[in-house]
Every structure is written in C-alpha cells, then in structure tokens.
Amino acid sequence: MNQLKHILSSLFEPLTKVETYENLITKVIMILIYILVAIVVIAILNKIIEQAFKIQNKSKKGNKKRSKTLISLVQNIVKYIVWFVVITTILSKFGISVEGIIASAGVVGIAVGFGAQTIVKDIITGFFIIFENQFDVGDYVKINSSGTTVAEGTVKSIGLRSTRINTISGELTILPNGSMGEITNFSITNGTAIVELPVSVDENIDQVEKKLNRLFVSLRSKYYLFVSDPVVDGIDAIESNKVTIRISAETIPGEGFSGARIIRKEAQKMFRQEGIRMPQPVISNYNEEKS
What we know:
Elements: H1 2-12, H2 18-60, H3 64-93, H4 98-103, H5 105-131, E1 140-145, E2 148-158, E3 162-167, E4 172-176, E5 182-185, E6 191-200, H6 205-222, E7 231-238, E8 242-251, H7 256-274
Antiparallel strand pairs: 1-2, 1-5, 2-3, 3-4, 6-8, 7-8
Membrane topology: Multi-pass membrane protein
Pfam family, one: MS_channel_1st
Domain Mechanosensitive ion channel MscS: 118-187
C-alpha cells in the first residue's frame, strides 16, 4: 500500500508545482514561435525563388511554363527542408535525441518499408516527370492509369509527390505521381481544330465553300491561336437532308478545341448573313386508312 502511494505521489507531485506549468507554457510558446518563423521564412524564400526565375527569364528569354514548373519544384523542396529543420529543432529542445531517431530508423524502416515504397515511387516519378519535361505547369494533359483515363485538364502544379490538375468542368484532381501511366500532352506540338459543318442538301456547295474560304482568310489575323488559315477539306458526308463539310486548322499548342469553337461561331454568323440554310429535320407522315 505504501509502495502504491509512493508511485502515485511521484506521478502527481510535479503537477502541484508552479515550475511545471511555467516550463509547459514556455515550451508551447517556443513551438508557436518556431512555427511562425518557419511560415515567414518559407514565404520569403518563395518570393526570392519567384524573383530569381523572373530575372532569369528576362535575361535568357526562357520558357515561362518551364519556369513555373521549376518554381513549384524548388518551393516544394525548400518547404520540406525548412519544416524538417524546425521539427528536429523542437524535438531537441524537448530533450529528444534526433540522432537516436535516425539510428533507430533502420528498425522502424522494416516495419513501414512497404508503405514507404509508394512514397519513394511518387518522388522518383515526380523527378522523371520534371527533368524529362513530360509536361509543365499550364499544359493540357490526359492521364491514363491501367488503360483508364483518371484525369484530363490543365496542370496547376507539379510537386515531389503529387500533381494537381484542373479539369474542364472545374474540379481539382490530385494525382500521386507514381500512379500515372500513359500521359498525353496536348501542349507540346501544334494542335488541330477539326470542325464538321452541316448545311442543307439544297445549297450550292461550291458557293458555300468559297464563302467559307473567304471568311477564313480573316480569322488568322483576328485570333492569335491560329497558326494557319482554316481550310475546307471537302465533303465528309451526304445524307437525305444535309451535306457535312469538314474544316481543319492548325493552332498553337493546346488550343485545338478553342479553335474549333471559334470556327463554328464565325461560320454560323456568316451563314446567317449570307442566308445559307442549315439542314431541317425530315418529317415522315404515315397515314393508314382503315378498310
């Protein structure tokens, strides 16, 4: 019984001393200061990194999208380093040996090795994506995994472990780098705008093509994204009520879809001005007489 009282006394005795709470408050304040300093340091370093790349771009006329990608990578690395230094410093202030933790990492590594494999795979894949220039921030990409499309949209950021992609419909998709299989980048080479315009089968197709070609001469100067004037490739299909005219145009990288939308809009405006008729639905009326 006396032994139990002695154990309880040794456990609760520090809680009755003012020094215990003073030390606790001091350490909490110290942790908050370290965290605040880390946030400020990261913010300052991020600004310095951005300014350094801006100066480099002005002097060497570098690729802006490539610079954004490298800025994102360097900022990620700096963030991890700063937080590692802060955490190890806080642990040492509490009397926890960082060297001991590192020394025991071999034993812990056996337990978490399989889980760490995924993290290592993500980081290695992230380095390959960046240094092989598979895609950059601002590129329009489609990502497949095991034959299934898992994301399609504009790359927002590339980190060591994951990539963020803004989809056409506005969602933000975060993909672990190691999960990416087939990558299709629509922003490396020039795009192609493909449009199929239906017109009434009663229209003079030669005249329609001439008017379209006359319209397309002005589009290149009006819209920056066209590398060449759109051209009428010819008739793509003939049906009972319509003729489908195929149009194509070379655009700057990643703007094929936008170019197609512009061609449709301008063609529709011209059709209205010139009185070119669009196909009307065919209505069949079956009258059955009763005998």
